[in-house]
Design brief:
CATH architecture of the largest domain: 2-Layer Sandwich
Oligomer: single chain
Number of helices: 11
Structural class: alpha+beta
Largest sheet: 5 strands, antiparallel
Distance between the termini: 117 Å
Shape: elongated
Strand content: 15-25%
CATH class of the largest domain: Alpha Beta
Order of helices and strands: HHEEHHHEEEHHEHEEHEEHHEE
Length: about 425
Amino acid sequence: MEVILLFIGGVVLFVGIYWFFGEVVRPLRQLQRLIRELAAGEKPKGFVARGSWGLEESIGQLERVSEKLEGVISREESERVNLQAILGSLTEGVLVTDEEGKIILANEKLLRMFSLEEVPRGRTVMETTRLVEVGRGVDEINEGGGTQSIEVQVAAMEGGQGQTFAVNLAPIVEGNRKRSGVVVVFYDLSKIRRLEMVRQEFVTNLSHELRTPLSILAGYLETLENPAVLKGGEGKKIWSVLQRNCERLTLLVGDLLELSRIESGQMELNLVARGPREILQEVQDDWERAFVAKKVKLKLDCPAGLPAVLGDLLRVGQVFSNLMENALRFAPAGSEVKISARHLEAGGEIEFAVQDQGEGIPADKIDRIFERFFRVDGGRVREKGGTGLGLSIVKHLIQLHGGRVWAKSRAGEGTQIILTLPCRKS
């Protein structure tokens, strides 16, 4: 009988231990594992919805918490991706700071504006941009709120150009009206400011170009009020001055209209194939007499058999007419002007050059000679004639043909204007 009771007691104990392990120990271990995974930000591999002592209900509640948390994380991730996409598509530079003025977010445009390799998280705006006004604005908004709009200048780096930014700053306000940071937007005004400067220079130069002949015309027209001055040599001199300045104004207006047509894209080219030597031979024939009259030698250097180029006969002629006029104007008597051509096989182009032996151009001004009205020595150049638009027209016409144009020069050693035209494709 005792043996039977011991046996029954052992079975009951085994069943109790098995029940306790299955209903309490195992669910507790599962619950611990789930809590550890959630705490680590991991998605749980599965939930056990069995157990006693309220474990089943606790695990069920934990499952519902996990589902809600997963939804929140998913929405936050989606919002983060959307925010990055929006910021990345903006043409303005954008950065966001926290309530301490430390950067927490910046888009790609801002990184390019300030040559940054990565988002400078944890750094201040002043440390990142070196713009004192912007850093001060962030601090003032974090302390007192409000918005600010300022314009700042960034000094040019070596070999580069300065920049101008319009900067707008606004606070980030949470639902409880507490300020939690600042949004700073940078809009690059550099191109607009440079265009304004070019426009101002153009208006100033044009006004100056018009003032001289108009003043001369006005002065002599007042003289003409006295009919007596029209008689004899004095009258002929007056008429000559009036005619010369009228022609100068006509040329200036004509060049302005021509440049306007080219820049507006209204000019159409009638492209035909011609040999480089044929083009230069025609240039030499047209200008030989004028060069002889000034005692300047005009030399042609162009091998036969070069590939033909595609060009508009009238416009290519206009290009070389402007270049030859400049060369003749600045070449001293007894010097030589050489016109040449050679084949650039790598680029499929013919390179033309017009070289004189004049005074040359200083190195710091060589890159500006193709600008409208730019003159190396304004007073002396005006005395020699010209509207100051010839090389600008040359540049635009060559670019319209798909070519390039540049200059080489050293003060006192002459100037070489080089241009390319594309070869005809065989």
